[in-house]
Amino acid sequence: MLIIVVTISTFVVLFTTIMRRHSFPLVLSVMNVANLLHVSCIVLYIAIMGGLASRDVRLLFLNERIMRWMHQLPVNLYHLGYLTSVSRLMVPCFLVMTALALSMNRYIRDQRRKIYLFAVAPTLLLALLYYPDIYKWMIYRQIHMLSLLVRCSFAWIVAELLVSFGILLYEYYEISIPVFRKNFLYILIAIVSQMLVYLIFATKDPAQIYNLFITEYLNLGISNYISPSLSSTGWDILILLVIAGALIGAWGIVRYEHFQYSEEREYAVLEKQFSAADMGISVFAHSMKNQILSAQVLHKRMRRELRKDKPDLRQLKDYEEEMARLNDSMKAHIDEYYATINSKHLILALTNAREVADAAISKFHEKYPGVSIRRDFQTGNRVLVDFSLFSEAIYNLLVNACEATAGIEGPARISLTIRAERMWVVFAVTDNGIGVPDKMRRKIFQPFLTSKSKDSSWGMGLFYTNRIVRQHMGHLRMESKSGEGSTFMILLPALTAGRKPEMRAAGKKEGN
Prior knowledge:
By secondary structure, this protein is an alpha+beta fold. The chain has helices spanning 2-19, 26-48, 54-60, 64-71, 77-102, 106-110, 112-129, 132-141, 144-174, 178-202, 216-219, 232-306, 313-341, 353-367, 387-404, 438-441, 461-471; strands at 349-352, 374-377, 382-385, 414-421, 424-431, 475-481, 485-493. It contains 17 helices and seven strands. The protein has a five-stranded mixed sheet. The longest helix is centred in the middle third of the chain and has 75 residues, at 232-306.
């Protein structure tokens, strides 16, 4: 039962690593494989030595037939013992590496080489000392070395576990974006379930497999693998915890993989929708320009009417002003989207995050001068952006927030927050508007989707914003509750302090 649970959990992690090899740590899979090897070696050793009492057989072997089959396998105990020793040392070592791979804390990432050395060097030394020939030579010459080696190896394992979980827990509490925190929690549960299995046997010294008759093990209080460590009830509780943790962790990692895959698939669908609609946009824009030309002809006629002896001046002037505003608005709208459609390159430059946010707010106030935006700029980190395009993306989110608060009871509250989130700089636009209905959330970034009048909105704003963010190697996230408001977050990669990237025009084709 125990091996089955560990095997299932291991293969789930391996599958996720293969599918998400660019974003899911390989060392987590290696750690799971090492733990599976450690448990398998011990189960095989217990079977060779005669097995367990019948009440514990189901935990390790499922039934006595499997235990008897394993008992008859021709296995060299020296090789089995050393393999158990090495796998026991590998698990916490790769757990440290997993914690480092998952951590996005800048200080921890800067110290990775030192922490790697901290984890690997003593592990290799202990693995060398546990080699059967070296171990026997050392123990038989100085018997007190047994106590020293046992205590040092276990103390080192505990130290690695404490460092690993310290990094992982700090990382978990440092995440403020709910969807990221939930995904990280799934991975954390999977790791904890593996460590529960590991700790069942890690407290015992594996050298006893090829060193059976040293009584000092009893003096040290270390029991044999065969002797029960827990009561029958204790084993039952433990196995239930292990199974629950492994299944929840495996399910969570599958959900994590599904979430990542769905996000990429949805964006690919959006790109196809836009490509299919691209010709329609061009035709529509051409048609709109023809309408503008017709409106301009009408405008000239209206002016000629104004020059007559007895025109209806008030009505004609009202028409003239309305037509002029309409023409200007429609032409500006079309030109803006023409520029976006025809933008095939990004001109990237190092920019202070606050400057690009201020530019977006200034542009917003040109359209809505009476609407206040609460600034909460917690960081001034530099980002590598196309200033014009990226400020346009933030501007679009501010406009959406303003329109979402129109008509609500009470004052509208719109805020723009900039904060450092692990290896990201996050631009978050929050409003207390109507929120996004459940039926629209999965379609919110699709082109031509809008709940407003088609005369005032084409439903392209969020699609273009998402596209601009993707071109900057970022992500656009949404959190919303109907009737309570929404938060749209742009996650942009933060620049590592001390690096001086080359300042040049960076070309990037759309959709890449």
